[in-house]
Amino acid sequence: MTSSKYILPALAIVCLATISYGVTHDVPHQQLGFTTVYIVRHAEKTSERSNANLTKEGKSRAEVLKWMLRDVSLDAIYTTDTTRTRQTVQPTATAKELKLTLYTPKPGKLAETIIQQHVSQTLLVCGHSNTVPELLRSLGVSIKENILKGYDDLFIVTIDNHSDGPTPRTHLQRLHYPDSR
Asked: For residue 53, what is the DSSP state?
């Protein structure tokens, strides 16, 4: 008799904890007022030509990027109009059934577009060694001067759309992704 006296309250606590967990963890970040921007530099290129293709390793890295973002609901993909940047994000765009949005490599202007036109959305941006750091700064992230060393950086910038002041609060996560799975 004594043990059944504790079963009902324990069961109630477990049910409430389960419901509470589902409520707090299943709410998409879009409903919470956050914009998330995944930022990568183009993958390895075949030459220093201005419109070079990706190498075998670069194409493989583009496939890994697609695989890494397979569970991410993207609203838009931005890329500069070079072959190497388009080839880096095209596998992801194809998998997500999204068109590539071309942007002029002016990071300040792109940051403004992201903040004003993509509130509470999730984006992928592909740039270059000179534009990625500038885009991060334009989004309000404090970074070191020579942050890019190779082609494997995946920056995740979260913008709090509810922060007070003229500039939204941002948070940066820096990950690395390989050129093969």
From this structure: P
Assigned CATH topology for domain 29-176: Rossmann fold (3.40.50)
* pLDDT tens track for 70-110: 999 999 999 999 999 999 999 999 999 999 999 998 888 99
CA distance 76 to 167: 22
Domain map of the chain by residue range? 29-176
One DSSP character per residue, 142-176 reads ---TT---SS-EEEEEEEETT-SSSS-EEEEEEEE
**Residues 152-155: contacts with CB within 8 Å, 24+ apart?**
152/61, 152/176, 152/177, 152/178, 152/179, 153/40, 153/41, 154/38, 154/39, 154/40, 154/65, 154/68, 155/38, 155/39, 155/40
Residue 177: alpha-carbon gap to chain centroid = 13
